[in-house]
Specification:
It is a single chain. The protein is an alpha+beta fold. It has 16 helices and 22 strands. It has five domains: about 120 residues, PAS domain (Beta-Lactamase), CATH 3.30.450.20; about 100 residues, PAS domain (Beta-Lactamase, 2-Layer Sandwich); about 100 residues, 2-Layer Sandwich (Beta-Lactamase); about 55 residues, no CATH class; about 160 residues, Histidine kinase-like ATPase, C-terminal domain (Heat Shock Protein 90, 2-Layer Sandwich), CATH 3.30.565. The strands form five sheets. A five-stranded antiparallel beta sheet has the order 2-1-5-4-3, sandwiched between helices. Strands 7-6-10-9-8 form a five-stranded antiparallel beta sheet. A five-stranded antiparallel beta sheet has the order 12-11-15-14-13, sandwiched between helices. Helix 12 runs antiparallel to helix 13.
Length: about 650
């Protein structure tokens, strides 16, 4: 074979053609975007495009005819010698084009993947000259392929899991369908029965083989094509608790409570309906009997004027009759301690718990949130749900208690009246003696003193009029006790109320000063006049000052700047005329809100045993009421108490008892 000539510049075999053709070929090859090379049988690159020259970015010096393994893999050894697949040898062996994939490691540790397409190159005589290789990066495709493979594997696993779950759910649903205590069946859009569970067979008497494929009205008392409503657009779905009648296989008429809804496929198309029903015939009969008995019992309680609650162990009110509904409103569902005592937690002594634990009747009396007294009887019983509960009978005894209290008060007041009369008579004689002796002493002193010495009157002389005045006041109080003990009255006249307040302050000033209590009181420029009796009015203010003193000493055992009593008088126009209002405010311990309504009751006291009789404010309230006035109170615990006295305004001229 004639030896081919070689070009001194390229050392490539020179085929037929001109240099211009070769240059044209080079330009065309350089235009290809993927690396393109021609490799001779000596593993030398005979031709490569610009993309191939740029392929080895990690090598700055690429010879004109490098070895293929040097150009592509940067290796000095042929691929076959180091165990790498060689495209040239694969083409020679296969005598056709081959594809080879390889991985290129990057400097940052990542990899890039390429696909090499190698095709045999022959001359015009069919002589094998080498191969033509093109390289295409397939990194993204490899990543996508891995992702698809991974996703497919996950999908396969998920399908297997879902299939197993579906089969398990199907088995469970079928088991549930068979053993569920409600009768269940399904129908297609033509109302043909498609499934029928065991409970449906038990309720109707029809076996599945007798009803499957037949119309669902087989056991209906009347044809239900229009009455059922499950396929009716006018009937809201789902249908819940609808009562209807059915005829069993043996001809019985039974009442059932049914639920129904439509069945749809994944596209939302109606493919049938499902219905469940429960035989409530016996339950309705029992409920009817129970309602009848309860109505009888309720009527009996109403006739006896007895209220009734039923409580469960969780303190919840489950039932109440009309009497309690009228008294408290509908309280079913609330806790008894909320309704009875307005508490946020159960009572410390719980009669309901005692009745259940001891299984014995418990009785008590209680003033409830509506301000009325009730006699309560707690009767334990076991309800139809086998739960221990309590029936509470409540009888309103407010009138009875008020009558009893009134009787007790009358007896107490009668005793006090007798005692007051006896004490008054015992005090009258020595008081009159003191007044007479003081008057004699005063007369003798006045008769022996000369006019020249009146400017140097001894201090003891000034005390004598006060002794006489206080004796007269004690005598007036004794007369008041006598009038309290029996019929009689005081003459109402014009009284300068601020003079009465000042006199009351004088009587208590020594004790108040000793205990560090300050009184803030300033007389008005124009003295307010009220219609009253001076002695009774003074008694009222002495009682008020006494209570204020007790409250201040309780809150402030030692001296304190806040230990004071403030007194104000000012005119007030009320609905029924002009009044003079007097407020006495102390900043002591205050009165609890639940005790405020009781402070004017006889014998009710907030003081410790032995420090109060509970009569002071009761008498004061009665005295002011007799004067056509009003005595009221407002208080905040540990902050203040304010007693307010409203009395009808009098004329500007004081009565004969006015003292200057």
């Amino acid at each position: 074979m004639e030896k081919q000539k070689k070009s001194p510049e390229t050392n490539r075999p020179i085929e037929q053609g001109t240099t211009e053709s070769l240059e044209f070929l080079r330009s065309a090859v350089d235009a290809v975007a993927d690396p393109f090379i021609i490799i001779g049988t000596d593993f030398r690159v005979k031709l490569m495009n610009q993309a191939a020259r740029n392929f080895r970015q990690d090598s700055d010096d690429i010879p004109d005819h490098p070895s293929c393994h040097k150009l592509i893999f940067g290796s000095d050894q042929p691929c076959a010698q180091i165990g790498r697949q060689c495209p040239l040898l694969d083409v020679l062996e296969a005598e056709k084009a081959v594809r080879v994939e390889y991985e290129q490691k990057q400097k940052d540790g990542t990899s890039r993947f390429y696909e090499i397409l190698a095709s045999p190159l022959h001359d015009s005589k069919g002589t094998f000259l080498g191969i033509v290789e093109s390289l295409r990066e397939i990194t993204a495709q490899k990543q996508y392929a891995r992702m698809l493979q991974s996703g497919r594997e996950e999908l396969d696993i998920m399908v297997l899991q879902r299939t197993a779950e579906f089969l398990q759910a199907k088995e469970q649903a079928e088991l549930l369908y068979r053993v569920i205590p409600s009768a269940i069946f399904t129908v297609d859009p033509d109302r043909t029965i498609t499934t029928w569970n065991n409970k449906a067979e038990e309720v109707t008497g029809y076996r599945a083989a007798e009803v499957l494929g037949k119309s669902c009205d087989i056991f209906a008392l009347e044809p239900c094509t229009s009455g059922c409503g499950v396929f009716s657009e006018q009937m809201a779905k789902p249908i819940m608790g609808r009562e209807c009648l059915i005829r069993t296989k043996d001809g019985q008429i039974r009442t059932v409570s049914k639920n129904a809804d439509l069945l749809r496929n994944t596209n939302g198309k109606i493919v049938g309906a499902v219905e469940s029903f429960e035989d409530i015939t016996d339950r309705k009969k029992i409920n009817k009997l129970l309602r009848a008995e309860r109505d009888k019992f309720s009527s009996m309680l109403t006739a006896l004027n007895q209220g009734m609650h039923i409580l469960n162990r969780d303190y919840g009110i489950e039932y109440q009759n009309d009497i309690l509904k009228n008294d408290f409103g509908d309280q079913v569902g609330r806790k008894c301690y909320e309704v009875y005592k307005q508490l946020s937690e159960p009572c410390e002594i719980c009669r309901m718990r005692e009745a259940i634990s001891q299984n014995k009747l418990q009785r008590t009396e209680l003033m409830m949130t509506n301000g009325r007294y009730y006699e309560q009887s707690y009767v334990p019983f076991t309800d139809v749900d086998n739960q221990s509960k309590v029936l509470i009978m409540l009888r309103d005894i407010s009138k009875e208690k008020a009558q009893h209290d009134e009787t007790m008060r009358a007896a107490q007041m009668a005793s006090i009246g007798e005692l007051a009369a006896g004490v008054a008579h015992e005090i009258n004689n020595p008081i009159n003696g003191i007044i007479n002796y003081a008057q004699i002493l005063l007369d003798e002193t006045n008769s022996t003193s000369s006019p020249a010495n009146t400017a140097e009157e001894p201090p003891s002389l000034a005390i004598l009029p006060k002794i006489i005045g206080e004796g007269e006041r004690i005598a007036a109080i004794v007369n008041n006790l006598l009038s309290f003990a029996g019929p009689g009255g005081w003459k109402i006249e014009n009284v300068e109320i601020e003079d009465v307040i000042a006199a009351s302050i004088d009587l208590t000033s020594h004790q108040l000063t000793k205990e560090g209590i300050n009184i803030a009181f300033k007389k008005s420029p124009v003295a307010p006049v009220v219609r009253a009796t001076r002695q009774q009015l003074q008694q009222v203010f002495l009682n008020i000052f006494s209570n204020a003193r007790y409250a201040l000493n309780k809150k402030f055992p030692e001296n304190d700047s806040r230990k004071k009593i403030e007194i104000r008088t000012f005119p007030m126009k009320l609905a029924n005329g002009n009044y003079i209002r007097t407020t006495v405010t102390d900043y002591g311990c205050g009165i609890p809100p639940d005790l405020l309504p009781h402070i004017f009751e006889p014998f009710f006291t907030l003081k410790e045993s032995g420090q109060g009789t509970g009569l002071g404010l009761s008498i004061s309230h009665g005295l002011i009421k007799d004067l056509n006035g009003r005595l009221t109170v407002e208080s905040e615990v540990n902050n203040f108490t304010r007693m307010t006295v409203d009395l009808p305004e009098g004329s500007a001229e004081p009565g004969p008892n006015h003292k200057t």
